[in-house]
Design goal:
Elements: E1 9-10, E2 13-14, E3 17-25, H1 30-47, E4 51-58, E5 64-71, H2 74-79, H3 82-91, E6 96-105
Antiparallel strand pairs: 1-2, 3-5, 3-6, 4-5
Helix pairs in contact: 1-3
Amino acid sequence: MTEQFPNDEINGKPRVVVHIFSAALDPNKSAELASRLTDLMREVSVKHEGFLEGRVFEGDDGKSVTVTTSWKSRHFWANAVWDERVALLLASLQGYEVLDVMCYEQARIVPHDV
């Protein structure tokens, strides 16, 4: 728990945070963006404690990409400077528009019952 993120822990356990962003872009660049985002997530997962998982989703029409990353807490997410890294990556591409950026605290996971 930190002053910046006082709700990082509940009952002494880190509170998982999920960061989600979506970008609209030229369909010709969607595969390149997905590949570069995957590389960035691999790099961050090795260099920064607290990274749990990352996923890249490409829209059926190739005109959008949505990325989710899960972190042990907001503190770990902030220390990885994730937003700034994504902004630099997006800035290196032309013809994109960020549609949405949100951070959520993980509430529930519903697994498939077998």
